[in-house]
Specification:
- This protein is about 45% helix and about 15% strand.
- By secondary structure, it is of the alpha+beta class.
- Helix 2 runs parallel beside helix 6 and helix 4 packs across helix 6.
- The protein is globular, with a radius of gyration of 19 Å.
- The relative contact order is 0.14.
Length: about 180
C-alpha cells in the first residue's frame, strides 16, 4: 500500500508521489534547470507573438495564456469564446488547454440576476516540466495558426448542464 496508495500518516500520498515532489523541490532550486524551464515558455511565447497570436504578456514560467476574447471577438461572452477556443484546439490538433473566462468566472448579479462576465476570456496552455520538446511547441504554434486562419468559422457553445459550484469542472456544452 505504501508504494501505490499511501497511508494517511504520509498525508495520503504514495511513495512515488513523495519521490516526485522531492525531485521537483530539488529541481526548483537548480538555477540552470529553472533557466531552461523559463526558456521553454519564452520560446513558445516568442513563436506565438511572431505568428501574430494574441497571448498575455509577459509570459510566465508555467503556461501560455491565449487571448480567446481577442482571437474570437465575433463570439459573445455568453457563448463562451474561451471554451470555443479550447474545444477547437483539441479537435484540430489534440491540444489540451483549459478555459479561464466566462465558464469559470461569470456569475449572476445577486440583485438583478444579470450575468456579470469577467474582463478576460483566456485559454491556458500549461507546460508541465520535463514533458515537451521544441518540436511540440512548434506543433502547438502551427495548430494555433490554422485556427487563426479559420477563426470566423468557429462558433460559440451553449451550456447544457451547469452545477451550482465549480461549474468549470463538470459543466456540459453543445456547439451552436
Amino acid at each position: 500500500m505504501i508504494l501505490r496508495e499511501g497511508f494517511i500518516t504520509y498525508g495520503g500520498l504514495a511513495g512515488r508521489d513523495l519521490d516526485a515532489i522531492a525531485v521537483g523541490l530539488m529541481e526548483g532550486l537548480d538555477e540552470e534547470y529553472l533557466a531552461y524551464r523559463i526558456g521553454q515558455t519564452a520560446y513558445l511565447a516568442d513563436q506565438m507573438l511572431n505568428n501574430g497570436l494574441p497571448i498575455v504578456v509577459p509570459a510566465g514560467g508555467h503556461a501560455i495564456y491565449l487571448d480567446a476574447g481577442h482571437l474570437l471577438s465575433h463570439i459573445p461572452q455568453a457563448e463562451f469564446p474561451g471554451q470555443a477556443l479550447a474545444a477547437a484546439l483539441y479537435l484540430e490538433g489534440g491540444i489540451r488547454g483549459v478555459e479561464i473566462g466566462s465558464v469559470m468566472f461569470a456569475y449572476p448579479d445577486p440583485d438583478s440576476g444579470e450575468t456579470i462576465f469577467p474582463k478576460l476570456e483566456l485559454v491556458r496552455l500549461a507546460i508541465p516540466r520535463r514533458t515537451y520538446t521544441q518540436s511540440h511547441f512548434d506543433y502547438v504554434v502551427e495548430i494555433c495558426r490554422k485556427l487563426v486562419e479559420k477563426r470566423e468559422s468557429l462558433k460559440g457553445y451553449r451550456l447544457t448542464y451547469s452545477p451550482q459550484l465549480l461549474r468549470h469542472f463538470t459543466a456540459r456544452f453543445e456547439p451552436l
